[in-house]
Amino acid sequence: MARPRKSQLTREALIELGMELIAVHGYHGTGLKMILDAAKVPKGSFYNYFSSKEVFVAEIINHYSLHVGERFDAYLEVAEGDPVTILKEGFALVIRELEGSGMKGCLIGNLAAEIGTLSPSCQAAMKAGAQVFCSRVEALMEDAQKMKLLRDDISAAECASLVWSVWEGGLLKAKIDGDTRTLRQHIVIVMDTLLRP
Amino acid sequence: MARPRKSQLTREALIELGMELIAVHGYHGTGLKMILDAAKVPKGSFYNYFSSKEVFVAEIINHYSLHVGERFDAYLEVAEGDPVTILKEGFALVIRELEGSGMKGCLIGNLAAEIGTLSPSCQAAMKAGAQVFCSRVEALMEDAQKMKLLRDDISAAECASLVWSVWEGGLLKAKIDGDTRTLRQHIVIVMDTLLRP
User: Is the CB of B114 less than 8 angstroms away from the CB of A113?
Assistant: First the structure.
C-alpha cells in the first residue's frame, strides 16, 4: 500500500488536534495559531490545507460524527439483550465516560449552541452528525416497537429525534450541575415510563 | 427618589450590552474591549465594575434569568385556559420569537455548552436560571396533574426538568436546521402524547 503523503498526514493531525482543542475551548476560544502550534505547522500554511476556519471546523464535525458512528456500531456488535436494554446500557456507558471526561459533552451540541447558524457548511455537518445518532437509535426503536417493548403511537423516527434533544439538553444540565444525576434520571423516565407501551 | 449614581448606570449598561453581544458571539467570541467600546467606557475601568470576566458573565446570566422570570410571570397574568393550554401557547409564543431572532436560542443553554464547568460562579447562575424556568413549569404541571390533564406517575418536578432538556436540546436542533420544525414537533409529542394521562 502506498504511504500517505505528508500533506495528508498534516491535514489529519490538524483535524484531530482541532477536535480536541475545540472540545475544551469552543469555536471562538480556539485560535488557529493554537492548533498550528500544537501540530508544529508553520502559521502561514493553514490555508494550504483548508480554505477557511469554517470549512476546517465542518471537517472536524464530520470527523467527530464518523467516530461516533463507528463507536456506536462497535457497541452494537457486542451489545446483548433486547433493543431497549441495548439503548439504556449504551446511554449508561456514555454517561460514565462523560463523568470521566470532566463533562465535555457532545461536540455537535456544543458547536450548535456556540456558532448556531453562523456557517452553512458547519450546519450541514452538524445536521449529518445528529443523523448519525438518530438513525441508529431509530433502528433500535423500530425493532423495540415491533417487539411491543416501546409505544408505537409515535414513529420511531420521532422518538429518536426526541431522545437526541433530551440527550443534548441533559448534557447541558450535566455541565451546569457538574454531575449527571438529571441526565440519568431523564433516560430512565423516557425509556422506562414515557415510551413504554 | 434619589437619582441612580453614574457608576450604577454604567454597570447596568455594561451588563445589558454584554448580554446582547454574548447572545450573538458567545463567551469567548465577546472580548471585553468589544463591550467597553459599545458602552463608551474607557478600557482600563472595567475592573472598577467587575472583578473578572467570569463574575461579569455570572451577573449577565442573573440579569437574563430575571428577565425570563418576569416575562413568564407577565405571560401567566394574561394567559387563559387550562394549565396545559397555557404551557403549549407559551412555548408557541417563544418559538415565534425565536424565528424572528435568527435562532439566537437560550443564553443559559448556549453558555452551558460553551463554557460548561469553567466557572463555578457562572455554573451557579445558570443553575438558578434553569430553575426560574423549571419552577414555573412545575407549578403549572402540578395544577394540570390535579386536574387529570397530565399523567401523575412522574412528579411535576421531574416532568418540568425533562421539558427543560427537551426545550434546550430542541433549540440546538433549531439552530442546526435553521428552522423550528423539530422543536415544535417535540412540544406536541411531549404535551399531547407522552405526558397525557
Answer: yes
Residues A127-152 pLDDT 10s: 999 999 999 999 999 999 999 999 99
The pTM score is: 0.95
pLDDT score of B2:
65
Q: Do residue B161 and residue A173 have CB atoms under 8 angstroms apart? A: yes
- Check if the beta carbon of residue B113 is closer than 8 Å to that of residue A175: yes
Q: Residue A166: its chain B contacts at CB < 8 A?
A: 162, 165-166, 169
Q: Would you identify the CATH topology of the domain B52-194?
A: Tetracycline Repressor; domain 2 (1.10.357)
* Complex-level ipTM: 0.95
Specify whether domain A1-50 bears CATH 3.40.50.1000: no
Give the number of beta-carbon pairs within 8 Å between A and B: 157
Domain A53-194 has CATH 1.20.120.1630: no
When the pLDDT of each residue in chain B is averaged and rounded to a whole number, the result is 94
- Write the single-letter amino acid at B175: K
Please indicate whether, in this complex, the C-beta atoms of B176 and A104 are within 8 angstroms of each other.
Answer: no
Domain boundaries defined on chain A: 1-50, 53-194
User: Please, which residues have CB within 8 angstroms of residue B58's CB and are 6 or more apart in sequence?
Assistant: B119, B121, B122, B124, B125
